[in-house]
Amino acid sequence: MDGAERAGSTDTIVRDLLLSGVDEAYRLATRILHDRLAAQDAVQEAALRAWESRASLRDPDTAAAWFTKIVVNVCRDELRRRGRKPRVVPLALTTDPSQTDGSAHSDELSRPIARLKPDEQVLLGLRFGRDLTVGQIATYLGVPEGTVKSRLHSSVAHLRAALDAERRAPEVI
Amino acid sequence: MTDDEFERQIRSHYRSIDPGPAPQWLADRIADMLVPVPPRLVSSGWLRTLLAVTATAIVVVGLVLGPRLYGVLSGQQPSREPATPQPTPTATPRPSSAPSAAAIDAAGTIRSGGLWAVQGSTLLTSTDAGATWQHSPIPVASGYAVTAFVLDPDHAWSITPGAGSTPFNGAPTDVLHLVAHRTTDGGKTWHDANVPGNFAGTSQSVVFIDQDNGYLICSAMRHSSGVSTVLRTVDGGQIWFVVGTGSWLGSMFTVSGASTLWAGAEQEAGPVGHPLLDVSRDGGRTWSDASLPGLEGQTGGGTLWLPGPPAFADALHGFVAVVLTNPDGSPETRIYRTGDGGRSWSLVRTFAEQAVGGLAVADADHVFIPLTGLTATDNGGASWQTIATRGLPSGVDITWLGFVDALHGAAQAGGLYVSRDGGRSWQPAAFGLVP
Question: Is A19 in Cβ contact with B34 (below 8 Å)?
Answer without folding.
Answer: yes
